[in-house]
């Protein structure tokens, strides 16, 4: 198992280097960051001096090597727009995004898995058909439209929940802030978390249903019925456990997608997270923020995939044996 983890870590370093190279190469063609730093009246000499001070006149390989070396020390440079360290800017907004992603993932799992199991076990019931209709709507509607509809119903019409912002937050330590400890923070989390987790919830529900139906048709489930095991033991002790292997894969990838694609939800609800910061960086050609954001998302995907691989051995002992044999 240790050799497997080390091999995956080496592969992860290669993935991060590839993402950093692609991101850094693409952003060279986004625009000239000097135009966002200086005013229109700046002379060509001043522009040339700023380009030299930022190292923009150096060859691409030199700039990339400098960036990777500093990124390894968590130094992503200075933002062209905010004139502040990129690490500080991302650190201030990371708690909001991670908090939103965590609540959305919990919502998708807690609601999606039971709905999938129920629709597989009670295929002909009216409630199962209702769940399938809801899942079809959740998959079909785009995220921003779901957010707008929720705002109109629960914020504008009924006035139950806030339509934007994060509410009151509590600072924990030097940089972490949370809305879990305040009533307004919890209320502000409801609409954006449902909006962000709706697609993942419907996807998990449909996947669990399909896998559950396939497992229930296997021979060992028929043998368990023949042995006289209770329906509860068969459905939840045998069928559901074997259903979770592909669900873990999709859930891990979707958790990374929730963090990466929270940009739309954060924009609709004006959530002060990393996604809004990334959009501002794109509009102002702030290359350090854009490159750091993509590198951070790639790092999160790598960590999540490693955790998913380790969970495989817990859920399916056959994979543990194969890893030891390898």
From TrEMBL:
**What stretches pass through the bilayer?**
12-30, 100-121, 133-155, 175-199, 244-269, 289-315
State the PROSITE patterns in the record: ABC_TM1 (PS50928)
Which CDD domains does its entry note? TM_PBP2
Q: Name one GO biological process term.
A: transmembrane transport
Q: Which GO terms describe its cellular component?
A: plasma membrane
Cellular localization per UniProt:
Cell membrane
User: So which domain of life are we looking at?
Assistant: Bacteria
Look up and give the membrane topology term: Multi-pass membrane protein
Q: Which UniProt keywords apply?
A: Cell membrane, Membrane, Transmembrane, Transmembrane helix, Transport
Q: Which residues form the ABC transmembrane type-1 domain?
A: 94-312
State the InterPro entries in the record.
BPD_transp_1_N (IPR045621), MetI-like (IPR000515), MetI-like_sf (IPR035906)
Asked if the keyword Lyase belongs to this entry, the reply reads: no
- Family label: Belongs to the binding-protein-dependent transport system permease family.
Can you say what this protein is called?
Peptide/nickel transport system permease protein
- What is the originating organism of this protein? Chelatococcus composti
């Amino acid at each position: 198992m240790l050799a497997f983890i080390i091999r995956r870590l080496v592969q992860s370093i290669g993935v991060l280097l590839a993402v950093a190279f692609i991101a850094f190469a693409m952003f060279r063609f986004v625009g000239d960051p000097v135009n966002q730093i200086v005013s229109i009246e700046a002379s060509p000499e001043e522009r040339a001096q700023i380009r030299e001070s930022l190292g923009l006149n150096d060859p691409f390989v030199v700039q990339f090597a400098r960036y990777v070396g500093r990124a390894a020390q968590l130094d992503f440079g200075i933002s062209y727009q905010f004139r502040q360290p990129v690490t500080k800017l991302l650190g201030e907004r990371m708690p909001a995004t991670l908090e939103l992603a965590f609540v959305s993932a919990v919502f998708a799992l807690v609601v999606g898995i039971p709905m999938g199991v129920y629709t597989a076990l009670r295929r002909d019931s009216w409630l199962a058909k209702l769940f399938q209709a809801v899942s079809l709507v959740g998959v079909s509607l785009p995220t921003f439209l779901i957010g707008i509809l929720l705002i109109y119903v629960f914020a504008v019409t009924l006035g139950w929940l806030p339509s934007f912002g994060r509410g009151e937050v509590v600072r924990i330590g030097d940089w972490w802030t949370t809305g879990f400890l305040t009533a307004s923070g919890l209320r502000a989390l409801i609409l954006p978390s449902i909006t962000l987790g709706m697609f993942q919830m419907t996807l998990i529900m449909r996947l669990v249903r399909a896998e559950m139906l396939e497992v229930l048709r296997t021979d060992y489930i028929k043998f368990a019925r023949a042995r006289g095991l209770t329906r509860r033991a068969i459905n939840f002790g045998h069928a559901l456990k074997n259903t979770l292997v592909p669900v873990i894969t999709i859930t891990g990838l979707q958790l990374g997608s929730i963090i990466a694609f929270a940009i739309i939800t954060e924009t609709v609800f004006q959530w002060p997270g990393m996604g809004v910061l990334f959009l501002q960086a794109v509009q102002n050609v702030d290359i350090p923020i854009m490159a750091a954001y993509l590198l951070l998302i790639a790092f999160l995907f790598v960590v999540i995939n490693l955790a998913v691989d380790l969970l495989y051995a817990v859920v399916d002992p056959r994979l543990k044996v194969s890893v030891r044999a390898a």
